[in-house]
């Protein structure tokens, strides 16, 4: 058992709980303060996160930063992590194409996430997308079934769920982009209000 987030990050470097370590560059631990009031959980590191070793530094991360700013959430108040700590991908020529983690990878990584939550003890955990909600709830979860609700996890922590920023990046028509961005910001404002209350 790790006694601090720094220790956990060190221990993660030698994780072989599933096979993802074989092809990933490195495990990517969460980032943020031990006393953070909010924990955001994404899915898994992407290409840039895998290379840099830091969560949410690529396109999705930059969009998340913008959303934080717009919703009045301070990054310093957050611990940002992922349900799965190694990048799962399929090589295609020189490119590495993101591949959704399966139930096996999520389960193999769950001990790390559980320990991060114990160490941070936030006021609220926010699942970004269905993989994070699945990891946190310990059962296959569709986002539409949990979005907009405040749930209590088995460890006693409160959880809310919203879309993953990558979902917004994948939308192609302008009207849906604008609509989904507005709903995402509204979700984050509710999150901000929840921790202020
Ligand atoms: N997407 C995620 O879910 N996590 C990251 O760290 C980056 C992109």
Structure description:
With 197 residues, the chain is an alpha/beta fold. The protein has helices at residues 5-12, 47-52, 59-71, 103-120, 130-137, 165-170, 174-196, and strands at residues 31-32, 38-42, 78-82, 89-92, 95-98, 124-128, 151-152, 158-162. The strands form 2 sheets. A 6-stranded mixed β-sheet has the order 1-3-2-6-8-7, sandwiched between helices. It has a two-stranded antiparallel sheet with strand order 4-5. Helix 3 (59-71) crosses helix 7 and helix 4 crosses helix 5 (130-137). The chain starts with a helix and ends with a helix. The model has no long low-confidence stretch (mean pLDDT 97). The structure holds uracil (URA). Residues 42-46, 49, 55-56, 58, 60-61, 82, 166 line the site of uracil (URA). Uracil binds next to helix 3.
Q: What radius of gyration results from the CA coordinates?
A: 16 Å
Q: In total, how many beta strands?
A: 8
Order of strands across the widest beta sheet? 1-3-2-6-8-7
The class by helix and strand makeup works out as: alpha/beta
List all distinct small molecules, including ions and cofactors, that are bound in this structure: uracil
SSE topology string: HEEHHEEEHEHEEHH
How many helices does DSSP assign?
7
Distance between the termini: 33 Å
Low-confidence stretches: none
Largest sheet: 6 strands, mixed
Mean of residue pLDDT? 97
Helix-residue proportion: 40-55%
Proportion of beta-strand residues: 15-25%
The rough form would be described as globular
